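Practice problem: HTH CENPB-type domain-containing protein
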Amino acid sequence: MPEKNPDLERSLADALSEWHARKKPKIAPLAREFGVPYSLLYNRVHGRGSRSTRCATHSILNSDQEQALISWIIILDDACSPPTAKMIEGCANSMILREDASRSPVDKNWVYRFLKRIPPLHNLHFIKQKPKEKKRMEAEDISYLTTWYQRLNQYIESNQLRPRDIYNFDETGFQIGQGKPQKVVSKSQTLYSPNGGIAEGITGIECIAADGWKMAPWFLVRGKFHMENWYK
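Answer key — structure tokens:
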């Protein structure tokens, strides 16, 4: 992107102010008077900014929106929960809809093009995140967890978050009538019942704040009718 000429920009601003003050005189004589190119002054008079202040024509989000999206990605990454391409796409589409509901959403490849435009100083790139076995997770060095909580504490302090501003939110699924652990007779070697199958499942949602406040649990039950004994 070409650098702006401060002197030229000042002259254009002065010429534009004079154009408004003189009640819209002819542009060509005014351009000669202030020593600026006619085409540039013509564009400014008709509301077109410089290239450096306009969004690129191929850019769906403006510069402020892109910076907000980058900040959102960094926040999630610092919280050890880096977003997927689908999550970034959804966030971008939310910005677009809030600004203009008639605009089309981004396509599935937009995220990859956007990532290439992010300044190198942010060091953001795609990596393949692999799941880790439970036993390997349990064997992790305590220093990793210590570092995570130190970073969490720094984030809380830097944003002046209070205990009542911090919530833990979780959901779990279970079969109706089988919410608690129980002994069973089975030839299976697993300690857990498989998901799916014939039995009907429901979802429970719980939420609690760091100051001790807790929300009454929500239960999502599939079906047209609710049976009273489901909630006993």
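Discussion: The chain has a mean pLDDT of 76. Students who identified this feature from the tokens alone can consider the problem solved.
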